[in-house]
Amino acid sequence: MKNAPTPAYLTAREAAAELSVTPATLYAYVSRGLIRSEAVGDSRSRRYRADDIRALRARRNASPTTQGEAAMPVLDSSVSTITEAGPIYRGVPAVALSDTATLEQTAQILWDARGADPFEAGNMPVVSTEMQAIMQAALPAKPLPRAIAALSLACDADPRAHNRSPEGRMAAGARVMRLVAAAILGTDPSPRPLHLQLADAWMPGEARAGELVRRALVLLADHELNASTWTVRSAVSTGLSLHDALIAGLVALKGPRHGGAGPLAARFVTELAEGDIAERVADRVELGETIPGFGHSVYADGDPRADVLLRALVKAGVDRRLAAEAPALVTEATGLHPNIDYALAVMMRMFGMPVGHETAIFAVARTAGWVAHGIEQLETGTLIRPRARYVGPEPGRSHSTG
Question: Which listed residue, 58, 136, 288, 309, has the most CB atoms within 10 A of its CB?
């Protein structure tokens, strides 16, 4: 006897039972976009997508390293997704794209730009007198604060900041990207490719720098709904301009569990470079210390972005002890693989860049993805307003005072 076909939809009672939750929790999942539902005829009843329910149940039952809210999709997006082979930018694998594309070309893919080039030479950011003073100020040890300060004045200075046409939003995105790069570098905005601006400003005379920076920027351009991108989408959903929303992204990026992990990885790379690598790794493992730049909440079997950048660094002549031997030792000892923060730290060490500049390169790259998600969110016209899962006391019960 053949097995009965798996139903495509479930009733509310069936769906709640599958998930072992109350109907109220089921409805909360629907409101957050975790489960799709549709009306049944003209009645008030609804039916629920069985594949969404079973996928959600599978994620909830996953191993401790992957379960939780980070594994649960919260909204639909056409910008990018994450696979075992790395991020996919609107159907284009980022790893393959990094072989030849510039960050500007990558941005146009992420933005689904099909008309005029938003990066044409005449589309430059407006820089007010106040902004000029910020841009010309002494470069701080950590370059991001200047970009944040410049962006805080940029929206008022740019008469086209709130242009609502698709072309206008993309043009604004290009201006913002150029402004962020200029502010980080302490230079005037330029139409030159961003990877060349970074390489020439920070690594003058290094023939290998341009191509390596270009590859790194493309690999870092977007990574789906990470913390800073979610922050940008939430901010822009309130009606902010892209200029203002990217301030929120830059601030979120600074956190040590996000883009701020770069300096931690850089300090670890310095530790390895200045001592016996095997001893340094063994000491950390024996003491149970974390190893910065290794492990990833999404890539259990290794970050493909790190792999391709480390290979490119080895080919360019970087110290193999840092790019190949150290990662192999750490992986053998811990099971953790190098992530993009470690690869970026090795690249910056190669060119003698101060700790903290890893996050700056990360920021320049990620502006492309932030703009893409900001534009997509603006097009929905909706306010992001997630609901919390309440775990407090039941109604009518007061806390004991004594």
Answer: 309
Q: State how far the Cα of 3 lies from the Cα of 15, in Å rounded to an integer.
A: 21
Q: Quick one: which of 376, 365, 296 has its CA closest to 90?
A: 376
Tokens of 126: 């407006």
List the catalytic residues: 258, 296, 341
Nearest to 189 by CA among 240, 140, 128: 128
Where along the chain do its domains lie?
9-71, 86-383
**The pTM is what?**
0.82
CATH class given for the domain over 86-383: mainly alpha
Over residues 41-78, the pLDDT tens digits come to: 766 778 898 888 888 777 666 544 444 444 555 688 99
Pick the CATH number of 9-71 from 1.10.1660, 1.10.10, 1.20.120, 3.40.50: 1.10.1660
Distance, CA of 219 to CA of 338 (rounded, Å)? 15
Which tokens sit at 394? 């039941």
Q: Is 257 exposed, middle or buried (CB count within 10 Å of its CB: 0-12, 13-18, 19+)?
A: exposed
Q: Is the dihedral of CA 366, 368, 369, 374 positive or negative?
A: positive
